[in-house]
Amino acid sequence: MKAAEAPFRLADYAPPAFDITHVDLDFRLDRTETRVLARLSIRPRGTATVLELVGDELVLAGLSLDGAPLAADAFTATPSLLTVRAVPDRPFLLEIETVIDPSANTKLMGLYRSTGAYCTQCEAEGFRRITYFLDRPDVLSVYTTRIEALKSEAPLLLANGNPGAHGDIPGSGRHFAVWHDPFPKPSYLFALVAGDLGAVKDSFTTMSGRKVDLAIYCEHGKEARCLYAMDALKRSMRWDETAFGREYDLDVFNIVAVSDFNMGAMENKGLNIFNDKYVLADPNTATDVDYANVEGVIAHEYFHNWTGNRITCRDWFQLCLKEGLTVFRDQEFSSDMRSRAVKRIADVRTLQARQFPEDGGPLAHPVRPEIYHEISNFYTPTVYEKGAEVVRMLQTILGEDGFRRGMDLYFNRHDGDAATIEDFLACFAEATGEDLTQFSLWYSQAGTPQVAARGEFDARHRRYRLTLAQSIPATPGQPVKRPMQIPVRFGLIGPNGEDLDFASVSGARVDGDVIHLTAASQTVTFEGVSTRPVPSLLRGFSAPVRLAIDASAEDLLFQVRADRDPFNRWQAAQTLAMRSLVAGASATAEGRNGAAEPALIDALGAVLDDEKLEPAFRAQVLQIPSEADIAREIGENVDPDAVAASRKRLRLAIVSSLGPRLLAVHTALGAEQSYSPDAGNAGVRALRNAVLDLMVASGSRAAVGAAVWQFETADNMTDRLAALAALCHAALPERLSALHTFHEAYRSDPLVLDKWLTLEASVPAPETLDRVKALLAHPSFAASNPNRVRALVGGFASLNQAQFNRADGAGYDFVADFVLDLDRRNPQTAARLLVAFRSWRSMEPVRRAAAEAALRRIASAPKLSPDTLDIVTRTLA
Ligand code: PHE
Ligand code: ZN
Predict the structure, then answer these.
(1) Of 123, 219, 301, 597, which one is the catalytic site residue?
(2) Residue-number span of the structural domain to which 68 is assigned
(3) Is this complex scored with an ipTM above 0.90?
(4) Which intervals hold domain Peptidase M1 membrane alanine aminopeptidase (predicted)?
C-alpha cells in the first residue's frame, strides 16, 4: 500500500497570502487541445514574495507578469504547481496560458465533454485542472469569461453571470461570447458550457419587480422533459422570497442537463449544471419519486445562490455550512409543496439508511470534519443529511421566529463572505440570546447518540417521571464524548388519544413541547398528570439519535392508532416491525421459525383501513424496514441470509393475515384518472403499489397476474416500474420476460435503462451476480458513465444485501475488481462505490473475513488514486 500524503487539518487554516480580485478567462475551445488564457489581477495581502498556484495535470504554454514574459529562472511549473519567485509587493497582473484536453478527461472534473458538449465541474478542486490558481474557497474574485468555439459545433456558449458581447469571428467558422459575473466568487463556482443543445425558456419576476430570463438546456429532443424542472425552478424562486426573503440577483438563470456527472448537480453561479437524471421528467419515463427528486434538487441548487454562493465557505472543513443548511432549506421547500409528514418520514428513512451506518462505522466523521486526505470523499450523508438535522434542531430549539431572525442576521452580516460554522452560530446566539456552546458539539462530535428513556407513573401523586439518558459511541479519533444538547419533542398521550396536561415540570428545561436534554442523564418530573400516559418521544424526529424505550407492544399499537404526531405513528409501527424482524432473524439463525407480532398486524391493518389518513402516509407504514435496516439494528455478527429470510417471512405473515383487506384497498384505489405527478396522486399510486408489492411477495397466482397486467397496461412509469419491481423483488420467473420487454421498450433511453439495470441487480437470487457480470458487457451499460455504474454496480452493492454479502465472498470480489478497474479512469466514482463496504465489520466471521480480504486486495493494488486510497484505508482502520 502506498503511503498517503499528509492530511489537511482545520487547525492549520491560514488565510491566503494573496487576493485575486479579478479573473479574466479566455477559452479557445477544441475537443483535444483547448487553450485557456487566464489573466489574474493579484494583490499581495502581506509581505510574501513567492506565489504558489496549484494545478492538476496541467501543461503550461505561456506565462507573463504585467505584460512581460517571465524568464525561465523566475518560475517553475509542474503539472500540479506553478511557483513564481519574486513577485512584486504591489498589485500585478499574471497571465497564464494552459493547454488541456477535454476529450481525455474521464475524471469528469475540470473541463470535459458530455452530451456532445463542453462542460465543467469545479467543486471542490476542479478549477486547478483548467488553470493554475489559488483554488480555495476563501479567494473570491470577479470573473469575466470569453468563450470561443466553432459555431457549427457549439452554437451555444454559456458561462457564469450576465451575458455580454458576442459575435462571429469572420472567416474562421468560429464565434465568441463574453459573460461577466459581478458577484465575487470562489473558483469552485466557475462554470462554462458550450455545445449544441435544446432549450426551454421562461421568465420570473422577482419580488422587487426585476425580470429574470430562465432557461434549461438539454439534449435536442428532450425539451418537453424539462418543463417540470422549469416549474419547480419558478416555485423555488418564489419560495425563497416568501420563506427567507431571498431574491435572485442576476439577469439570467441557466440550467444545463448533462448525462455524465459524478454527483447530483452543481450550483455554479447563474449556471447550474445538472446530472440529467435530476432534470428530465415526463410521465412515461420518470416515476413519482423521480419527480420529487427533480423538484428537490432543482430547489437545492437554486437555494445555494444564497447559502453557498453569496455566502460561501472559508475552507472545505466548513462544507456543511452550505450543504447542511441548503438540504434543510430544500427539505422545507418540499414539505411546503407536498405533505410535510410524509416528507419527514422519507427524509428520516434516508438519514437512517445512509447516515446512521456511516456514523456507526469506520467512515464516521463529525458534521464538520477536522481532518481529511481527499475532500471529494466528504460529500457525505453526515455533512449533508446530518448537517440538515443540526440546522433543524437549531430551529426546534430557537423556535421558528428566533430561527428566522438568526438567518436574517446571517444573510445581512455575511453576504459576500467566506464564512465558518462559528460565524453561523454566532448569528443565532446574537439574534436570540441563546447560549449555543453545548449545541455546537453537534458539529464536532461524530457518532449517533443513543437516548434511553424510561417512564414511571405514580398514580397516588399524579406524577410522571421520565428518565432520559444519553450516550455517544466512540468513533475514529474520538474515544470519549461529552453530553450534547438534545431537543426531545414530546407528548404524554392519554387514554383517549389527546395529549395530557400537566401542572408543572422540573428536572430539565422544557419549552412548550420540547425537553432539552443536556446532561448524561436527567429525570424530568411532571406533576398533575391524571392517568398513566403513553409517552410519545422524539416527535417529528426532533434529533438525529437512536431512541431506546422499552414500550410494550400494546403501547406501540396504541401510538400507531392514536399519536397525534404522524411521524411517531409511523415510527411506532416501524418499531413493532423491527422487533419481529430482529427476533425472526435470530430464530432463523438458530433454526427456529419466528412468529409475527400480533400487535404489528393489528397496527398495519388499522393504518391500511384508515381512510382519513393520507394514502402516501399509509404506504410508508406498509413499507417495513429493509434488510439493511434490520442488519444495522442487529449491529454485529449479522447473517444476511437470516435477515432476508426473516423479512420475507414477516411479509408473508402480513399478507396471510391482511390479504383480503390488502386486496380491497388495491381494488378501491384502482380506478384512476390520467396521470399527474402531484403529491396527492402520487400518494395513491404509492399505496396501491406498496400493497401490490406485499401481495406479490406471497407468490399468489392472482397477485402475480395483477402485477403482470399492471406492467403491461400501465400508462405511466411509476406503475409500470412498480409492477416490474414487485416481480423482481420476489425473484419470480415472470420477471424474465417483463425485464426483456422493458429493455426493448426503452432501449434508446439511458435514464430508463438505469432503472432496468438496478432491478436486474436487485433480484434476490444466487444467479444475480453472474447476470450483473454479464451486464457489464451489455451495450446498454457504459463504465464511463457514473449513472450506469451506480445503477448496476451500486444497485447490486446497496440494494441486494444477501447477494453482495454472499458467504463465498464473490459479491465482494466483484465489487472490488470493478472499483480497481474504474479507479484508473474515474477515482471519485470508484471511491464512492467502495463505501458499500462500510459495514463489513458487523458481518458474521466468514463474511467478515471475505470482505477484509477484498479490501486488503484493493489497499495493496499499485497506483491507487488518493480518493480510493483514502476510503480503503479508513475502512480497514
Ligand atoms: N455542491 C453540489 C450540491 O450539493 C454537490 C457537488 C459536489 C457536485 C461536488 C459536484 C461536485 O449541490
Ligand atoms: Zn448542495
Answers:
(1) 301
(2) 19-196
(3) yes
(4) 228-439
